[in-house]
Amino acid sequence: MAATTQRELAVNKDIDSVWNFVSDMSNWASKMPGYQSHEIISDDDSAWTLNVDLGPFQRSIVVDVHVVSWDSPTGVVFNIKGRYEPFTGGGTYRAEPAGTGTMIVLDFSAQPGGSMATMITPLVGPVLERIADQFSSNLAQELDGKVVEGAPAKTKTTTRRGLFKRLAQKIRAWLRSLRAG
């Protein structure tokens, strides 16, 4: 039921300049697609109001963002939760020097919850892809960089059915190996 994706960016700023931008949650919020407003609650918590397009549905949502860890200047780990909508997610920001610039890797995940989760799950992957593309492009533009072409845009959606199917395949393979041995 969770979808994950990853983006890579190459920016023409040194890692400390990038960290100066990244370490301010207001900068992240304003680069989100559909950004309407945000509120800083504490050093680690904020609430973002976004207009999200879910294919047939479009609406404003409030997302509570909690930074789990700040690892200056190379990393951020964060969790998100819909304030009024049943979904959770999170992600990471990782950076490393690359010549005179910085290489950034962004990981995103989202998982629907509640009674509509099974109906919404097929939309999560494509929506997460679109949000990751737009956010990464906005961030790259702000930091004088670009999204790395050819970098794998990995999206993976895991459902219970998929987990059980893989488990059953492994059990069958194990049983076949026992019979053959």
UniProtKB/TrEMBL annotation:
One matching Pfam family: COXG
InterPro entries the UniProt entry points to: CO_DH_gsu (IPR010419), START-like_dom_sf (IPR023393)
Superkingdom field: Bacteria
SUPFAM superfamilies documented for this protein: Bet v1-like
Name of the protein described by the UniProt record: Carbon monoxide dehydrogenase subunit G
Species of origin: Natronocella acetinitrilica
Lineage start: Bacteria, Pseudomonadati, Pseudomonadota, Gammaproteobacteria, Chromatiales
